[in-house]
Structure formats: structure tokens, C-alpha cells
Amino acid sequence: MSATLEAELRDQARQHGIVVWLDKEGAYTGFADALRARSEAGEFPWPVRCFRGSYLELLVGLEDLEDGVGMTPLVVHVPGHTEDSIAETPLFELYRAGRRHRRKLETLVRDAAHGRATTDAVDGFLGGDGVTLEGADAWLDALEQAASRGEGPDLSAVSVEALFDDLRTGGMLATQLDRPVVAQAVWHRAVVLLGIDAVWLRTPTAPSATAAEHASAMARDIAGWALCVEFVHDLRRHPADEQLAALRSLARPAVAACQQLARHLRERHSVEYARIADDIEPTLDAEVRQATAADLGKIDTFRFEDRIVLAAALDALGSARFTVARDFAEHRTDERSFWTRHDRGRRTAWNLVALAARLGCAVVDHTGLLDGARTLAGAVERYVDRGHEVDAAHRQLEQARHQLPHLEIEEVALLRQRLDELRVVYRGWVDTVARGFNALCRAEGFLPGPALQQRTLFDDVVAPMAADGLTAYFLVDALRFEMGQQLADTIAETRTADVTVAARLAELPSITEVGMNVLAPVARAGKLTVDARDDKILGFRAGTVRIDGPEDRRRAIHERIGGDTCPSLSLEEVLGRDVTSLRQAVARAKVVVVHCEGIDKAGEKGVGLLVFDKELQNLRAAWRLLYEAGVRRFVITADHGFLLHDDHTRAALSHGKQTDPQRRHVITSQRRDQPGEVTVGSRDLDYDGAELYFAFPEDAAPFDRGDRAKDFVHGGNSLQERVIPVVTVRHRHAAGGETVSYRVELQAGDPVAGMHCIEGKVRPSGQSSLSYGGRAELELALEAADGSDVQVELCDLHQLRQTPGGLVATVDQDFRIYFRLHGDVEDRVPVRLRHATRSAEVTAAVTTDRFQVVLRTRTVTAATGARPARTTEPPSGDPPWLAEIPEGARAVFKHLAAHGSINEHEATQLLGGPRQFRVFSRNLETYAARAPFPIRVDVSAGTKCYVRGDS
User: Fold this and answer.
1) Please, what's the b/e burial string for 573-600 (b: 16 or more CB within 10 A of its CB; e: otherwise)?
2) What is the pTM of this model?
């Protein structure tokens, strides 16, 4: 107990400076006086001062500890006071400047006894009269002496995770469980670590059971206890089951050990975890019957928890409580729930719930989108800023819905019903927005100002960009605005260019024959000359030439821009070429035109939902290839957008004979206004040529075309059909150039096994961005920020690679470094992480926390004095004891002797593979007996770590 308390005080003083030790009951007075004497004798590193009735005496005793700047680290023992009462004393300023330490003796006993005494033994000791720190030390020492005289193996260094792994993998202990002394030792170790009580039922095994059968039963009992403890302490109410309710009083260290073991099982033994959890669940009948989603915490220990929460989420969707459903789903779709990872069906179901909730929330957030809008520009601005998010959420839900027929879970019928209801909710929103937009068009006109017109896009955007240099002009059929925004976001994530997204309104009707040809320079004085026949638009006239196809558009662009060539490539042609071929194709051009028809073709075939995202990926890949081929300017736009319908929202609007209308528009030579429609004449759209009239449904409904109806429609006057993206991409540097600046972010982490820890990330600075070709890597160096004589010992790395020159970090990847500091002077210093080669502009980071420097000479002296055998080591070569360890394991122990610790991944590499590592784990106790130092097994962040006991 005393050693544990001393270590706490030493570490807190090292980390925080002044430690004010509140001791209301005065339970530690004798220990504090002894610690002060040891400090004065140089046996404790920090000064210790004790309040013994005189505030003045104590304050005077602190004066000699000032170093001219502030107070040196020290420990001040203040018996008889609490956080409240010390505020009324002269010590309050010292208290506010320092770090509070307060520990009830009972808590200290339970924490210190964890892993060394059973819960019943601890309860028995604390239930006695006159419990003191000295008595606790004697009691625990007696327990350990009795344990050392036992006949079984010494398992005091074995963690509960290592114990379970041994049992499940047939390790060294598992193969000896037919020996009662071994079985008793293993079970006792589990009891003292997990706090298993005497009434916990163990799986019965026959006297003649094999060691393997004993191991299986014991592993199940240990895991079952841990899972129940985790469940009880995650539950938001008192358990209904009395046996489970008793687990609420379990000591904190035992609860933490149970939670850690449960996490270990989920991460390392997922199949076994699911089997054990399912075996235990039937014994929790009272909890299963009474549990509600509100009762359950953040961890779904058992499968029934996921079922209950999914039912609650589906109920929330049905009652339009979309934020509630979203909150439920967020905890089960981001790898935090075991059952969604373990069961693909439930993972799919939760993904659909999350997408449905996102759509519902978007609809609610953007209800009344156009309320108060007075101009077309205002309506477009609202849709671009917010409204398109609803359409994106709807498309993504519909894309994911194709998994529904393959879903084999009991909730599938209700899930399908909820998704169908969301379709109706979305259609209601689309209809409302469409009616509002058409009403605005009736009042303000269907043709917006020049800045929003599709016909001016080429002269306003493409021509000026081409004047600055080679430009790729993507003409994408049916790339509606939300998809263009998604594409732009993925390009911007590479941080290689300045990316902007603007919007324009497609010309009417929003069909390919109109929008695609208008993207060429066909407007004259702001007007378009329509070439129509039999109430169908064929194209537009540019002088005497009709523009109605890819080659006509290419020719018109070439004539307007100039250049030796003006190549026109399909998206497939771009993707089918290599960089060299593309570079040759665009070498003498000012503009390269890329035609992309995949989205529209897939939609027309009824398979759009399966390929929309793939087409966006293809567009991004084409951008990348052209960039690498030397193109640094891009304009990506569309002819029109589209609406998506389905079985529940396809209700059609009648317009004469079913052969008269197209899906979303009608072209006639005579104006005919009908209910539920809006009509505009070609003159109002500044179209020259024969006068035509265009009629559209005023909501999102398609026209009735009988059995020719499709769910992918365009041609009408909705924002989804008319708002097109104008994505511009400008690269400041050619592909391959490295002009990026970065900054290192750093903070202190939790120390482990005597090792300091820092956590950080390398980020690009501002608008500077990664050179193309993937996530960049930078070589870093860790050093002490104060004191050139302080050396850094790297102990363990997470998400970093170590090289002879330093550490290699991936930009935007979180990492963790475990290290020690060695120097000639005992000190506390910050550390700096900087760029190692200085080949890039990297802003270094210095920690605000300071870390303890260990004296080099002290480390050597302690090791030599504690282990005289080590003084016989020759000045060069391996020490003699290493020769007694088999060759494979020898490398691991050599690493431990030199560095103090090694994690599971490093050991596997040294040993030559996972199989050799399993052999090493089984024989660890045998090997450790031949080493001049003890070994313990720690688990940090799910990774097993072997630590030299004297480290």
C-alpha cells in the first residue's frame, strides 16, 4: 500500500509540481512524516512538508523552496481538511496553484490489492476494526508471502488478457489444467484480477475431464463474469437481477479489468466472444424483458441490446423523431458496436437506419426552403447552400437500399416499411419545393439573369480560363448539383488545387438536346436560335451551322478559343489512355473537351443507383490523369440534373394522350394551360426561331406515359433538374511539384509502464496541399526542447515507421510515440518533434508538458546493484544468460534487456511470424526463469506489451 501511495505522490509531483495532499481522516499522518524524513535523507526525490497545526510554520518552511521563478515540485500533507475547508485557510493560494491529491484509505487498499488479493479477502480486512496504512501493508505482505509458498505456478506477472489467450489457444497453462495446483492458481489469478466472487457459478467439468476441457470451461467462466460486469456498469438503471445487482459494488480496478478483458475478447476473439455472449444471454431473462433503449449504455455487450436499440430506432423513424434515430445509429455504424462488426446483416440494417435518419433530419432542417424567396437567384442560393443536401441524402439512401432484399434479420419487414415511409416524406418535400420554385418562375420569369444562365457559362468561365492556359472542359450528362458538389469535395480533399463550386440554371426544357448543346458557344447577344421540328428540339444554330452533337460542339469551341488543336475525348477514352498518350493528345491545344454520358445512360437503363458513385469515381480518375498529363485548369459542368422516383412516389400527371408528353415536359406550337402545370413560351426564354411553348408539372410528378414510365426523369422545371454545378479546379503547380507546408500538432498522452507518451498528427498548413499521388509522408525527429545533453529513447510507435534517420509519419494520420529521456542531470523538459531532413517546410511542435529525465548513471547503478550477475557481462558481445535461451526467443530478450519493453507486433517480427510468436507466448514462463530480470505483460490500446520488470 505504502509503495503504491508513494509512487502516486512521486508521479504527480513530477508531472504537476506542487501536490497538496488532503487527508481528512488523518489516516496518512505517520506515513507522511516518514516520507518527509526519507526526503530529507535523499531517498524521495521531492521535498515533503507537513501541516501539523501551525500554518505560519508551514508557510515559512516553504520559502526555501522557491527557485526565483516559482516553486519547485513538492508534496504538502494537510490532514483534517477537504476541498471546501481548505478554502478558509492560509494554504488556499498554495492549493489553487498546485494539484490536489486525495485518497481514502479504503480506496487505496482496494486499488493496491487488485491483482494480489481476492475481493472477499479485501472486504474481510476492511471490515475489521482499526484499519491503518501500516496494518494494510502487513496484511498484504502476509498474503503475498503465503502465495509465494504455494505449490502452483507464479502468475503474478500474467495479465488477465494473457491468461485468457493461454486458455483459448492451448498455451502452457492450458495444457496443465488437469493438475489441480495449476488449475487453482489460474482460477485464483482470474479471481484477484476480475474480482470474481465466491457465488459466481462455474461451469461443471467431470473429474475425468481433459486439460483442454478444463481450459474451455474456465475461459467461458472468466469471460462470462467480465461480460456481466461490463453490462452492469454500462447499464443506466439498477439491474433487475439480484445477482447482477451485486456487481455494482465491485471495486473500480476490477471493473476496469473486466471492461478491458471484454474489449480484448471483441478485438482478438470475436467468434468466441459472440458464442460466450449468446450462451450467457438466456440467463439474463429479467434484463432482456425489462430493458429499454434508454436503459442501455454505449456498449452493446449482448446481442439483445442491439435488437432493443434497433427496434427503438425504427420506432423513432416511424414517429418522425429523426434525430433520435440518428443518435442511435451513430453509435452503431462507426465501428463502436461489436454486433454491427460481427453480423453483416445488422451492420447493413444500421447503415440503412443511419441514412434514413439523415434524410429525415435533412427534410426537417430544410422545410420551407423557399419561403420568403423573391428572385430566382435567391431560390438558387438557398438550394446551393442547403437544399441540395436533402437530395444527396435521398440518393445515398436509395443507393444503399439495394441491399434490403438480401437482408436476413427479423426486423427486415419493419425496416422496409420505414424506408418506404421516408420515400413519401422526401416526395412531399420535393413537391413543396417544386411548387414554390414554379410559383416564383411564374411571377419573376423562367429565365434568370445572365450570371445564372447556362448559355453564358462558356464565355464567362471557360473562355477566360482557357486564355490563361490549357483547360479541360468536362461536359457531363445529368450531373446534378449535389453530385457535382460531392465530386468537388473529393478533389478538394487531395489539397492539390483551388476548387470552387458555383451553380447555373439549365435552359428549358432540361433535356440533353438543349443543355448539352448550349454548353458550346452558341448564344448570340444573349439569345439562342432553336432548331426544332415536329415539336422537338434538335439543336441550336450558330450562324448557319446547327450544333447538335459532340463533334459540332468541339468545332464551335475550337473556333471560339483557337489553338492548333482542340481534342474531344469521351470519358472512357481518357480512362483508357496512359499519361504519356494524353500528354501528346493535349500538347498543342488550349481546350480539351471531355464528354461524359455514363450517368444519364445508367439512369435511362434503370441502373443509375448502382453506378452513380462509380461514375463520380471515373470523373475523379479522369481529372487525375489529365492533371498528370499537364492540364492544370478544369471546368466540370452538366447539361441538366434529374429527379428520382420509385413505386411509392411515381404517381403521374395526365396530359392528353399518353403519347403526347415526354416524362417531364411537353413541347407544343400552341399555348395550352392546364391544371397542375406551368407553361412558358420560347420568346420568354429568349429563344429565336419558331415560337414554341413548354409545359411542365408544377410539382415533381412525371407525366403519364403509361407503361413507359421510368424512375429517372428530367426535362422539367424543378431545382433538382435545373440547378447544374460549375466546378472549377485550378492547380497552382504542375503534378509532382512539392511546394507544400505542414505543421506538427502534439500533446502529451498517458504514460504506460514507465514510458512517456506523446500523441500527434502532421497536417498541411492552410490552403497548402499534398503533392499528388496519395497521402504524403514526412520524416520526423524527436528531441528534447531544453538541454542538448538529453537523449531520447524511442520505445514504441503507433501509426509510425521508424527509420535509421528518424520517424516516418503519414500526413493527417494520428500517431502515438512512447519514449524515455536520459541525461546527466535529473530534470523535467519539454520535447520537440521536427522535420528530420528539412526537405519540406514543416513547423515543428513543442509540448507544453514537461517529461522527467532519468539519470544515466542512476539507471546503471540501480541495475548493477540489484542484479550482481549483470556485472559479469563482457564489455562486448551477448551476456552469458542469453545463451541459455533458444535462438528465436533470444532476440526478444536481447531487445528487452536493451530497451525495457517490446510490443506484440515487434516480437512477431523478431520471431519470424505469428506461429513462432504463439510458441514464444506458451513458453514465456520457461524463458523468463533464465533471465536476470522479471517480465510482466501489459496491454495498452489493445496491444500486448512485454515489459522488463525493473523498468
Assistant:
1) bbeebeeeebbebbeebbbbbbbbbbbb
2) 0.70
